[in-house]
Amino acid sequence: MSFSVKWRRNMAVCYNKLWKLLIDRGLNKTQLCKEANITTNAMARLGRNEDVRVDVLVKICTVLNCTVDDILEIIPESDLQKRGSQG
Q1: Which pairing describes strands 73-76 and 11-14: parallel, antiparallel, or unpaired?
Q2: ∠16-58-75 over CA atoms, to 5°?
Q3: Is the pLDDT of residue 9 over 70?
Q4: Is the pTM of this model over 0.85?
Q5: Which of 4, 52, 76, 77 registers the highest number of CB atoms within 10 A of its CB?
Q6: Cα separation, 7 vs 29, whole angstroms
């Protein structure tokens, strides 16, 4: 088993930082889609903490004037599942 396959089984992406940043900036998901020129499908994937293309992340960061570090975390899958069950 390669390292990348093993990594994908144990780690997950969490976009909670993005949602907090949107609230702080007074933006909603629809506004971000329009301003960043990203699809609603990409936004839905973000909402489910699924992988998206790097260009989607770059567009979001450009609109929000931030870095990828400001909008996502890479965390153990077990932690993501715990966060999801809390609320």
Answers
A1: antiparallel
A2: 35
A3: no
A4: no
A5: 52
A6: 29
